[in-house]
């Protein structure tokens, strides 16, 4: 039997599913300010799209720095998150709360 993690990673290969997953994770972050969970979601999408090595090549960010940024031991800069999302084929979107 396949694990949930394996199933989830397979689903996150689809850009639409990855987008929905990160949108939900960010929505949760807005409520509870749990950076670790949001960064874990980014790590899941990263894994689904080839891992840290592939992301490093797409973003020109050092692998070790990516590991540190996504480890939740520090709070990454918004520019870094933007670069990571770009490397994953995603972007930030700001919408009015009344439509969320």
Overview of the molecule:
- It is built from six helices and no strands.
- With 100 residues, the chain is mainly α.
- The radius of gyration is 13 Å and the shape is globular.
- The mean pLDDT is 91.
Order of helices and strands: HHHHHH
Instruction: Give the radius of gyration.
Output: 13 Å
Q: Overall pLDDT, averaged?
A: 91
The total strand number stands at 0
Describe the structure concisely for a colleague.
The chain has 100 residues and is an all-alpha fold.
Keywords:
single chain, 100 residues, mainly alpha, 6 helices, 0% strand, globular
Task: Summarize the helices and strands and which ones pair or pack.
Blueprint: H1 4-11, H2 15-32, H3 35-48, H4 51-59, H5 63-69, H6 78-87
Helix pairs in contact: 1-3, 2-3, 3-4, 4-6
